[in-house]
C-alpha cells in the first residue's frame, strides 16, 4: 500500500510538522513533481502514436497540469487513447489543485494536515478560515463529479458519429478540460467542427463558467435558498463582486467582438449563429482556450480585446487563471472611489480592506511587468517566427501568446508550435507562474522580512 509507511502515525498527528516548513513551497514542489511524472508517462511507448521529444512531452505535461491548453503538437494524432487518458488525469489534478488531492489522500488515510497546510488549502476555496478542510472537500469533490458527469453525458449524445471507445474518451476528456478551464481538445482544430452545434457549445460554455466562477461563489449560489426555513441566505461581498464582474466583463467582450466581427469573422452566419459564436468567444477566451473559429480570422482590435479578457481571467478559488475578476474589480473600484474623493474603497455598502486593495495592486503590477518582460524576451528569441503573418503585428502575436500562457488561457495565434526550444521553456515557466500565481511563488521562495526602518515623509510633484 502506497501509504503503509505512515500506518504507525497517530490519527490526530499533523503531517508536515517540520519546524519552519513552508507549505507554499510544498505546493510548488507538488506541482513540479506531477509535471515530472506526467512528462515521463506521456513519453512512454504506450502513450504515443508517433515520436515525441522529451521537451515537447514536458511542455504538454506543464500545459495540462497548469490547465493552460497551449500545445506544440496535435494531441489527437500524437497520443494514443492511453496517452489521452493520462492527459485528462493531469488536467483534473491541475484543475482542482495539488492541495485538494493531497489533503483528500491524507484525510482518507486517517492523517491530519498541519495547521499551515490546512490554512493554505482553505485559502484557495473560501474566505472563511474556520471551515474545516473535510467540509470543503465534501462540497468541492461531489460538485466537480456531478457537473463533469452531466457535461460528459450531454457531450456523449453529440459524438454519436465516433466509435464507442472514442465517444466515451472524447466526452470525458472535453468535460474535464472544459470544467478545469484547460482548453485541450483531441479533435482537429479544437471545436471548429461543432461551431454551430448549440448543445456542444452551450455545454462547454456552462462547464467553463462553473469551473471559472469559484467554488465559494458556486456554493453560495447552491445554498442561496434555505428550504428548511424557506428564506433566502445572504451572499458574501466576494460572491457579489465575482458574479457582477464576470457578467459585466463577459457582456462587454461579447458585444465588442460581435460589433467588430459581425461582417468580419462572423460574416455569412445567421444572427443566431453570430450570437452563439460571440458568446463562445467571450466566455471561452477569458480562461478556457477552446475555439470554434480560427483566432487568426479575427481582426486585430478583437485580438487586443481578447488579450485584455485573458489577463483578467476567472474568479478566485476556481480552476481558471489570470489576474482574477475580483482583482480587476477592486482596482476599478479603487479608481472610482478615488475620483469621487473617497479615501476608502467602497462597494455595495461595504468597505474593502486596505490590505486587499494593496494585494490587488501588487498582483496587477507583477502581472504587467511579467507580461512586458515576457513579450520583449520572446520578440528577441523568436522574431521572425514562421507563424507570424501579415495581418497582425509581431508584437500582438507575441503578446497574445505570453498573455495566454501567463493567464493559463491556452488560445494561440499559431506561434506556440513554431517556438524555438528556448521559447518553449520560457512559455512553460510562464504557464507555471500563471497557475501558481506570481505573488504566491514570491512568498514561497522569499522569507518575509520586518518593515525595517521608517523614514520621515517628504512630498514630490506628480502628474
Task: Describe the structure in your own words.
One of its GO terms (biological process) is metal ion transport. The chain crosses the membrane at residues 26-48, 54-73, 85-108, 196-216, 237-259, 296-315, 361-381, 393-413, 425-446. One of its GO terms (cellular component) is plasma membrane. It is a multi-pass membrane protein. It comes from Hallerella succinigenes. The chain has 463 residues and is mainly alpha-helical. It has one domain (4-125, 132-444). The chain is 59% helix and 3% strand. It contains 18 helices and six strands. The protein has helices at residues 23-43, 54-65, 75-78, 81-96, 98-108, 115-123, 133-158, 164-179, 198-212, 215-222, 237-261, 271-285, 300-312, 325-339, 354-382, 394-406, 421-436, 438-445, and strands at 14-15, 112-113, 225-226, 231-232, 345-347, 350-352. The strands form three sheets. The protein has a two-stranded parallel ribbon with strand order 1-2. It has a two-stranded antiparallel sheet with strand order 3-4. Strand 5 and strand 6 (350-352) form a beta hairpin. Helix 1 (23-43) packs across helix 2 and helix 4 packs parallel to helix 8 (164-179).
Amino acid at each position: 500500500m502506497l501509504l503503509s509507511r505512515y500506518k504507525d502515525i497517530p490519527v490526530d498527528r499533523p503531517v508536515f510538522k517540520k519546524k519552519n516548513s513552508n507549505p507554499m513551497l510544498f505546493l510548488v514542489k507538488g506541482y513540479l513533481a506531477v509535471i515530472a511524472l506526467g512528462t515521463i508517462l506521456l513519453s512512454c511507448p504506450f502513450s504515443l502514436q508517433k515520436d515525441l521529444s522529451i521537451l515537447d512531452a514536458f511542455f504538454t505535461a506543464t500545459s495540462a497540469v497548469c490547465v493552460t491548453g497551449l500545445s506544440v503538437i496535435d494531441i489527437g494524432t500524437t497520443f494514443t487513447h492511453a496517452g489521452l487518458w493520462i492527459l485528462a488525469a493531469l488536467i483534473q489534478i491541475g484543475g482542482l489543485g495539488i492541495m485538494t488531492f493531497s489533503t483528500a489522500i491524507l484525510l482518507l488515510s486517517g492523517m491530519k494536515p498541519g495547521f499551515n497546510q490546512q490554512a493554505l488549502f482553505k485559502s484557495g476555496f473560501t474566505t472563511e478560515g474556520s471551515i474545516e478542510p473535510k467540509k470543503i472537500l465534501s462540497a468541492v469533490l461531489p460538485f466537480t463529479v456531478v457537473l463533469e458527469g452531466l457535461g460528459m453525458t450531454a457531450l456523449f449524445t453529440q459524438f454519436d458519429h465516433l466509435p464507442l471507445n472514442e465517444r466515451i474518451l472524447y466526452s470525458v476528456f472535453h468535460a474535464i478540460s472544459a470544467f478545469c478551464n484547460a482548453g485541450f481538445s483531441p479533435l482537429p482544430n479544437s471545436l471548429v467542427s461543432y461551431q454551430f452545434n448549440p448543445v456542444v457549445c452551450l455545454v462547454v460554455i456552462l462547464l467553463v463558467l462553473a469551473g471559472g466562477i469559484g467554488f465559494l461563489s458556486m456554493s453560495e449560489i447552491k445554498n442561496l435558498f434555505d428550504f428548511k426555513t424557506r428564506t433566502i441566505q445572504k451572499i458574501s461581498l466576494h460572491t457579489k463582486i465575482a458574479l457582477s464582474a464576470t457578467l459585466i466583463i463577459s457582456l462587454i467582450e461579447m458585444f465588442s467582438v460581435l460589433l467588430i466581427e459581425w461582417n468580419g469573422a462572423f460574416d455569412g452566419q445567421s444572427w443566431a449563429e453570430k450570437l452563439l459564436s460571440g458568446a463562445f468567444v467571450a466566455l471561452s477566451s477569458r480562461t478556457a482556450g477552446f475555439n470554434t473559429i480560427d483566432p487568426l480570422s479575427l481582426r486585430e482590435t478583437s485580438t487586443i480585446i481578447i488579450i485584455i479578457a485573458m489577463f483578467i481571467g476567472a474568479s478566485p478559488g476556481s480552476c481558471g487563471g489570470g489576474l482574477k475578476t475580483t482583482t480587476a474589480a477592486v482596482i476599478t473600484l479603487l479608481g472610482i472611489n478615488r475620483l469621487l474623493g473617497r479615501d476608502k474603497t467602497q462597494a455595495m455598502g461595504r468597505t474593502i480592506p486596505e490590505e486587499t486593495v494593496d494585494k490587488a495592486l501588487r498582483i496587477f503590477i507583477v502581472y504587467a511587468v511579467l507580461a512586458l518582460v515576457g513579450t520583449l524576451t520572446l520578440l528577441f528569441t523568436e522574431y521572425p517566427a514562421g507563424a507570424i503573418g501579415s495581418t497582425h503585428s509581431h508584437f500582438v502575436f507575441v503578446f497574445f501568446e505570453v498573455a495566454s500562457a501567463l493567464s493559463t488561457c491556452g488560445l494561440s495565434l499559431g506561434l506556440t508550435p513554431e517556438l524555438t526550444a528556448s521559447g518553449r521553456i520560457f512559455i512553460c515557466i510562464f504557464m507555471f507562474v500563471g497557475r501558481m500565481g506570481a505573488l504566491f511563488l514570491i512568498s514561497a521562495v522569499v522569507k518575509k522580512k520586518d518593515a525595517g526602518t521608517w523614514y520621515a515623509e517628504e512630498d514630490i510633484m506628480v502628474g
